[in-house]
Amino acid sequence: MAQTIRRGGKAVRKAAAASGTKRKVRAARRQTGSMIDQVMQWIPFSEETLHRILMVAILGGAAVLAWVVASMAGVPQLAEAEVALFASKSGFEVKRVEVRGVNRMNELKIYEKVLGQRDQAMPRLDIAGLRDELLQLSWVKDARVSRQLPDTLVVDVIERSPHAVLRRDGKLTLIDETGSPLETVSPAKAKGLLVLSGNGAEARVPDLVHLLDAAPALRPQVAEAEWIGNRRWNLTFKTRQVLALPEGETESASALLTFARMDGVDRLLGGKVASFDMRSSDRIYMRVPGRADAVAAAARADALEKSTAKANAAAGKTEAARAAVASVTPLNSAGAKAPGSKTAQD
Description:
The chain is α/β, with parallel strands linked by helices. Helix content is 47%, strand content 18%. Among the domains are: 69 residues, Ubiquitin-like (UB roll), CATH 3.10.20.310; 124 residues, 3-Layer(aba) Sandwich (Rossmann fold). The chain has a 9-stranded mixed β-sheet with strand order 6-5-4-7-8-9-10-11-12.
């Protein structure tokens, strides 16, 4: 009797494929497990510690997310306001202002900036913003604002130092060593300070300081400095004598040093010379008041004397000619020719 055997081809292939997949999964798990084991061996802490770190990271991320959501909802601002209100009710608010370090500037200008912070709660006080406002004042070089609990705001100020006076358009303005303007002053308050003039002179203050350092002995004698043509300096001393310096930082410093040496030997300052011109590198020109007038007067006197001499000589010649004519033709008292006399023609 014949027996027919049927083979389920598709079922066999499916079973084989499933079996192969399971083998691959097991192999992948074994490989992954071995990789994780290797990583755990490299990490310098235990698996329990790693688990804690992961939990902290997850909780931290959740906290950050909660903070972002709360910020978008305005919760931190509300909490800050509540804390500030509580602090204010507890006496932690600005009631007094103490200003330190003010010597020359008007202290009221600082109070105008600071008193706007009064009655504010200490936690809500904008220290950085207040400092920035104080730095906008012309006299303030630096400032520090601090809280002195429970109710005092302390302002420490570092003032700028007046270095010179800028004269422009009939006004005098105090400036510091950088050329920054401080305030407009009267001539009485500007007395004793170096006076600057000329377009752009305030921007050249550091250069002028460096120039005067070349001759320290002359520096106290300089009363004014004029920046000429945006290229050189004219110095006026307290004796009202003027020194014209050449262009160039090196050239002007060398000329000033030479002048200081000459003054040390010949005492130029306080003498008859009104101005010294050192713009030429090989010579110095000096102007003495009245010298030109005296020379001109002498020239005029000499010319007048020569003119008078010429006139006298001409008059002498005329008189001699008249005398010669008179000796040849004698005249009577009426001016007629005397009888018996002869003329040159006769």
